[in-house]
Design brief:
Blueprint: H1 2-13, H2 36-42, E1 43-46, E2 55-58, E3 63-66, H3 71-77, E4 84-88, E5 92-94, E6 99-103, E7 111-114, E8 120-124, H4 127-132, E9 136-138, E10 143-146, E11 151-155, H5 157-160, E12 168-173, E13 179-185, E14 187-189, E15 195-201
Parallel strand pairs: 1-13
Antiparallel strand pairs: 2-15, 3-4, 3-14, 4-12, 5-11, 6-7, 6-10, 7-8, 8-12, 9-11, 13-15
């Protein structure tokens, strides 16, 4: 029952509301279908500082950002598709922008940040961590409003690396028809300081 309630919270948080018809990024079909090929065709990666654009997403974590994963890495996360992996060098995770933060369970199998304008960023940890159910210390409720840079989660890196090393997570930006160009970072990023994505919207 508890899992069902949490999943329902995530479903509601990541779908648009009819009471908010002016949301900038909400399409008429009200869906959050993620077209991986479409998203990555819009991505332009850079090691340098990202340009200012219509929407900005700061990094929720600190570490070395990989542009793509190989097949073996995907299997470790129990996922398929093109996502970005971060090799973590800090135990703190913060909100990348002000909005809603919803998690599926206590082991961060799915942690979603939803911007008031509809943008959604997911953070996921490997299955090996989730199976043990330890090493995650939450600073916010299961479903809560957060401010940009607010501490959300502290992980016990020394414990997690017993089950899979190096300690890492995945970042998934959900695509939307309103996205024109997405400028993304590679290399080292700092939580709350560096931009992870800078997004240009279609006019």
């Amino acid at each position: 029952m508890a899992t069902r309630c949490r999943d329902e919270c995530i479903r509601k948080a990541t779908s648009s509301s009819r009471s908010q018809p002016k949301l900038l990024l909400v399409s008429s079909d009200r869906s959050w279908e993620h077209d991986v090929n479409s998203l990555f065709s819009k991505l332009k990666f850079s090691n340098d500082r990202l340009p200012n654009a219509d929407l900005s997403v700061k990094s929720p974590v600190t570490g070395a950002l990989q542009q793509q994963l190989d097949g073996e890495a995907y299997l470790q996360f129990g996922l398929l598709g093109e996502l970005q992996q971060v090799l973590l060098s800090s135990n703190e995770l913060v909100a990348p922008f002000s909005g809603r933060c919803v998690r599926r369970d206590e082991t961060a199998s799915l942690l979603s940040f939803v911007h008031p304008q509809g943008l959604r960023l997911d953070v996921l940890f490997p299955n090996a961590y989730q199976q043990h159910g330890q090493g995650f210390f939450w600073h916010v409720p299961v479903d809560s409003q957060v401010q940009s840079g607010q501490p959300v989660l502290t992980i016990d890196g020394s414990r997690l690396q017993q089950w899979q090393a190096p300690v890492s997570c995945l970042l998934q930006l959900h695509d939307h028809p309103k996205f024109q160009t997405i400028h993304g970072r590679t290399g080292f990023i700092s939580a709350a300081d560096d931009l992870l994505y800078s997004i240009e919207l279609k006019k």
